[in-house]
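Request: Have a read of the protein record below and say how the chain folds.
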Amino acid sequence: ASLPAAELVKVRRTCSVDGRRWAVDEFLGPLAGLFLAEVQLCEGEAERASAGEAEVDPPFPAVADVSEDERFSGGALARLSAEGLQRLIASVRRSRPPQPRSETTDRSGA
């Protein structure tokens, strides 16, 4: 027997930039256009970042740091429709101060 479940479809790509390992997830299906990135920090960096003493700037355009935002957890994303994703992204964009636009096209989605 199988139980119904919400599916989350994504492609994960990894790369190293400036000695840091990045994983970038490109979401497909209803979440197409959403890209989330995470970085592996060394022990000292991780401690300083969790204490709010250090930030790691991604080497690509980003809309917001959603590390602590439960709305971007896998379970929450799996339940989102395309329309729900648009509302979520709009709320994240409204909640952060305006940033200078990069010459690179912002395709991150969140």
About this structure: The helical segments are 43-50, 74-78, 82-94.
